[in-house]
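Appendix B, Record 12. Input sequence as logged:
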Amino acid sequence: MGKKSDGKLDSLSVWALAAGGMVGGGIYTVLGVVIAVSAQWTWLSFVLTGLIAIPSAYSYVFLTNKFHEEGGAFVFLEKVNDKKMAGNLSWLLILGYVLTISVYAYAFGHYLSFAFHGDPLLMRLLAAGIIILLILLNLAGVGKLTKVEILIVSVNLLVLLALGVYGLTQWNSTQLVAGIEPRPIWSSLFGGAAIFMAYEGFQLLTYEYDKIKNPEKKFMPVLLSAVIFVVFLYVIVSVGATMIGGATSMISFKEIALSISAESAFGKTGLIIMTIAAGFATAAAINSTLFSTANLSKRIASQSELPSWFDHTNKNDVPDRSIILLGVLAGILAIIGSLSSLVEAASLAFLFTFGIVNWIAYRELNKKKWIPLLGIIIGCLVGGALIFRLIISKPIALGGILAIVLLIILGRPYVLKQKEKTKQKSKNEEK
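Logged structural output:
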């Protein structure tokens, strides 16, 4: 698998990168979080959020093929003449990606430090260290290693599938609620709301549209099959891993839930394999998200929707300032944040973004309108559940998120206006 000789990404490469973009950080970071909320209904939480991700993938591909341009939600809004909304959403989307990178770095630090007896200082050093390393690799122009990413994804998917299937062969449904109170079925809605970011990642392929071979014909079936496969994988792993590890242990060690399960199943060998898989998977997810977000920032800046400071590139044609700023912000959040808060904040950002994309697709489609409509309806239910959950359990965190959104809406025009004034002043001085 990899790139063809013409430099275009073939179908297997696109499939692997899409699946890896979701799984690379998703299941490693969110499994313990969702078990704490939904217990025996964890699998249903992944199904519900999958029913948002699948229509969203359809909408992303339909719109990308329609406009024949990479850039995702930002470009879609520009094409339907909503430039103001495009600017606001692009800033929110960048924030979502920064939060996502921080979650991946958080997971990387925890999985590796746990293998060395879980020292908190080591965890922070590892989280910061992987961010610094990947910033440097990107600045050197070797950030996007497609063949390496595909190899990591392939091994990663096999390890997770093996763990999940083995767990199912040890069927013991009492493990799903071992040591905790069973949850009502509606808790699956709140569980799904808390971990929607587990499906973030497939849309990064829309930023690579120009590099995909024959996208008009193959992009849709390839991306949809990748998302559907990930939904099934999450269901298998969520049930199988909990069957092995038990609900209490998975919640108590939610940051490294899969290591707990692998060690329970296969002892030290299982722990070592899962640590290696988690380390490479989360590092690859950090790298691809950082690379794509920095290039997205550059593109947005070139359209005058971000300060031109973000448009700067180094001698390797890498948006260096964006790479450094985004990486540093994500690293700080990974060190000081809590897993649940970071995951929920990122989930809220992507629920909103995917909702916008589904709405645009609904407007632009002549047939099959029910597909984006399904994503909108379930997305509204899950988004409402997440906001309600944050109001009850984390009102300060929700207030902070809303304050940032308000700052974006009110502050973005001011920042861009000041940028335009500075630009005009420079022109007058040159005259």
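DSSP finds 15 helices and no strands in the chain.
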